[in-house]
């Protein structure tokens, strides 16, 4: 019924203003208790109906246990549970991978759904600013499913109509802290369908030693380290160009040497070559015998780059009208032009002519070299445009530890930081950890490059030079 007290009546405001001297109160409707009780009963019935669908194993186990206890008593129930426990123990010891996938991770997902995400969902999202209000009602994104892998939780979420994934991407830091995770990344599956990925621990905390030299070389998938999900990180060189950016000590050398190490058999049989530019004379000089061409001064570096352009153009002239895809052979090997600290020849060299020629040569290689088997792998500390204005000519980019948050988007593209690529927050004690963004994929992937030590490089150079054999 309607409350008669002041319902719809004109009341005098406490502090009237000339523009509004009369204010009407909103009528208040009392909801009958029977309706409130009916709603509670309906929600309970809905929960009971959904339980077998959401948790079939748990509900089935409980139902069978009750049936056995009712039919045969508690002794029979104890025997059944003992046999089941022994069977699970044997499964765990004999086939641990399938047990982990089918039992342990699913039980963990159910636990974390109830006690981590569903329990804290509303307060975290409200405080993070992801709750929407309409006509005095609050609307929240809804959890559709929680799955667990060996290292992370994946929370599939249905967004509120009228919101965009960008709204969630801008709150990844708040979500990560709200649910006690090291980070949060957002993957868009479709309209109103996103997945929030929360790592439970850092799988890349331990250093990775130099990987074994592969028997067969795939220049489009060179083993270079490990991804955050535990899968091998494979670096593509053939058919693309790669820009690696990171501050001093971030691990750029690990990326370069891991790629060179993975190409050793191809270098040995003559189907791949590495042309190296080493202005610092400290990083690449260790494996000088591995390189078909080597330059360590500004003039020599420009000469090497211009020679690579001439070779590329000669090869393109021979391919014109005959083939569109390069296949590495001894006659036409794949050429990786490795430029350590590319800013030296594009921005820091005192000779303006050297800088201009180097920039022109790099622009030509990165814009025309992919189809004829020439790839540029460049390393850089400062990603600003005035240092290297050719960033967009590198399809694949690797962001190691950076100085500033704004540099993340400079390297990986707009929106990378909102998707969880916090390269500026990488721990200085984790060299080689990076975020990789590949051509055509907006989602950054967290990886760690393998560390190739000086002893490893010496062994590589001693066992596989220009005319040597494989290590």
Automatic annotation (TrEMBL):
Transmembrane segments: 74-92
Domain FtsK: 230-409
Domain of life: Bacteria
GO molecular function, a single term: ATP binding
UniProt keywords, alphabetically: ATP-binding, Membrane, Nucleotide-binding, Transmembrane, Transmembrane helix
Entry-linked SUPFAM superfamilies: P-loop containing nucleoside triphosphate hydrolases (SSF52540)
Residues noted as binding ATP in the record, renumbered to the chain: 246-253
Protein name (Swiss-Prot/TrEMBL): S-DNA-T family DNA segregation ATPase FtsK/SpoIIIE
Taxonomic placement: Bacteria, Bacillati, Actinomycetota, Actinomycetes, Streptosporangiales
């Amino acid at each position: 019924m309607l409350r008669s007290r002041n319902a719809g009546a004109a009341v005098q405001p406490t502090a009237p203003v000339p523009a509004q001297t009369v204010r009407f109160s909103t009528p208040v409707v009392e909801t009958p208790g029977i309706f409130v009780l009916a709603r509670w009963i309906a929600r309970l019935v809905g929960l009971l109906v959904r339980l077998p669908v959401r948790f079939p194993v748990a509900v089935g186990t409980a139902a069978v246990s009750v049936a056995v206890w009712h039919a045969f008593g508690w002794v029979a129930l104890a025997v059944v549970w003992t046999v089941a426990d022994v069977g699970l123990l044997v499964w765990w010891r004999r086939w641990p991978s399938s047990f982990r996938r089918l039992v342990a991770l699913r039980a963990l997902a159910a636990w974390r759904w109830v006690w981590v995400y569903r329990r804290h969902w509303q307060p975290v999202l409200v405080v993070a600013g992801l709750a929407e209000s309409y006509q005095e009602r609050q609307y929240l994104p809804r959890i559709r499913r929680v799955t667990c892998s060996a290292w992370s939780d994946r929370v599939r979420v249905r967004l509120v109509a009228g919101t965009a994934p960008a709204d969630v991407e801008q709150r990844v830091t708040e979500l990560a802290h709200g649910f006690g995770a090291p980070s949060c990344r957002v993957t868009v599956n479709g309209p109103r369908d996103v997945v929030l990925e929360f790592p439970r621990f850092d799988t890349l905390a331990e250093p990775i030693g130099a990987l074994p030299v592969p028997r067969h070389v795939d220049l489009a998938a060179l083993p270079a380290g490990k991804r955050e999900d535990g899968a091998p990180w494979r670096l593509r060189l053939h058919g693309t160009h790669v820009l690696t950016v990171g501050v001093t000590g971030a691990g750029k050398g690990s990326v370069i040497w891991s790629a060179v190490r993975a190409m050793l058999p191809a270098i040995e049989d003559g189907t791949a070559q590495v042309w190296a530019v080493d202005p610092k004379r400290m990083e690449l000089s260790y494996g000088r015998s591995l390189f078909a061409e080597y330059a360590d001064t500004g003039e020599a570096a420009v000469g090497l780059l211009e020679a690579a352009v001439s070779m590329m153009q000669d090869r393109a002239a021979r391919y014109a009208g005959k083939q569109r895809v390069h296949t590495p052979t001894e006659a036409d090997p794949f050429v990786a032009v490795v430029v350590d600290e590319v800013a030296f020849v594009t921005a820091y060299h005192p000779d303006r002519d050297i800088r201009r020629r180097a920039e022109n040569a790099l622009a030509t290689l990165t814009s025309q070299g992919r189809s004829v088997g020439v790839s540029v792998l460049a390393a850089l500390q400062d990603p600003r445009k005035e240092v290297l204005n050719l960033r967009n000519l590198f399809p694949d980019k690797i962001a190691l530890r950076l100085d500033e948050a704004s540099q993340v988007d400079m390297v990986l593209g707009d929106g990378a930081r909102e998707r969880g690529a916090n390269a500026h927050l990488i721990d200085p004690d984790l060299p080689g950890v990076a975020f990789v963004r590949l051509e055509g994929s907006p989602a950054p992937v967290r990886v760690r490059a393998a560390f190739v030590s000086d002893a490893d490089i010496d062994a590589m150079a001693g066992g596989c030079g220009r005319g040597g054999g494989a290590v």
